[in-house]
Amino acid sequence: MDFTDPKLRILTIELDAGAVMIQWPPVVGTSKYELHMREGEDASAEWKVLSTSLTSNEVRKKGILPGCTYAFRSRAVGVEDWIESIPTVCIEPNMKQ
Q: Please, is 47 exposed, middle or buried when counting C-beta atoms within 10 Å of its C-beta (0-12, 13-18, 19+)?
């Protein structure tokens, strides 16, 4: 695998729209990615499959709720190693400090 930056990033949180933009480093030689999401703060909680056939290394995930904690992970289809985000709590826009 050839990663330019081995981190999955939550780029923007659009709580008014209930969405987040997620981006991870492209993998040279792949055409599809898997994306999983985990809700809550329990690191042993089960991952939910969001897609196994994404053609881009950036995606907008809808259905995000204020006050909830989310973690995401991605990988190129057929690759064992996951790229994970740090768990992120989505806060209300008016609660930003």
A: middle
| pLDDT confidence band for 49 (50 / 70 / 90) | very high
Q: Which two tokens stand for residue 64?
A: 């995000």
Check: pTM over 0.85? Answer yes or no.
Answer: no
Q: How far is CA 90 from CA 16, 26, 44, 65, 77, in A?
A: 11, 25, 20, 7, 28
pLDDT confidence of 56, banded at 50, 70, 90? very high
Cβ contacts of 8 within 8 Å, gap of 6 or more? 22, 23, 24, 72, 73, 74, 83, 84, 85
User: What is the residue whose two structure tokens read 């042993």?
Assistant: 44
Provide the sign of the torsion angle of the four alpha carbons 52, 58, 60, 64, taken in this order.
positive
Residue 53 corresponds to which tokens in the numbers above? 């056939």
